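Same chain as my last thread, 270 residues:
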Amino acid sequence: MGPEQSLGAPLFLLLLQASVLLSLPWEDTPGLTSFLGNSLHNYTFSHTFFCQNEAPMVSLSEAFGGDQLFSFDFSKNSRVPRLPEFAPWAGDQSDLQAIDRDKQLCQELQKALSNFLEGQIPEARGNPVAEVFTQEPLEFGKPNTLICFISNLFPPNIMVTWQHDGEPVTGSSPVFLSAVDGLGFQAFSYLNFTPSSTDIFTCRVSREGNLFSTIAFWGKVLSPEACAPWGRGGKVDEHLWRRSPLPFSSHPGLQQSPQGLSFPFPTSLP
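reply #2:
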């Protein structure tokens, strides 16, 4: 019996366990069902586990109608609300045992499937696409929040850093990862700030071991020549601030974001 055949029965049993866990009644999460109320007839609530060999090793994301509500901090055994208005429902701990079972099952499946498929199919990777925009309508001098939205993300292991006028910025939120249709992922990072007319913020998305990062700009609209890796001495358009998305560029490596431009950069650039 070859290795593929010998793994068949264990994989079947693991998948059977998964189907049983996925069929658990909603009563296992009373806090969430109380929050969602009768809307379950019209919307979808997703409780998505994923595990991998890279950080984060295991993650849980919960979304309602496609919008992420919570991630889960496994070091503290608690939910983390993506937005402050979700905080009142983040304290529910009635399903911690179910979450622990899901974690163990996910890791067992990941280990078994990795051994089974190693050398059989190539690893799939997506090039992240980033956009930066404000949470509230832009008013100079009024506190606001910058949102860095990252899509086309697979596998879900990234590092997100912020810069203001070329200098590193601290105090951003943790990166919130969530699953989307098509077995991909998206991510959000938040930065509180008070905008001024001279600001240029950058959100840099990188992966360990990759030679390139994706960078999205927000602020004075930059020409491609001003920030492209092949020419950094271009002009900056001082007068134009945008609140709505720009059309995507036809350049294969360049995407326009709501407040500027987003494209791959060598990680060695400052």
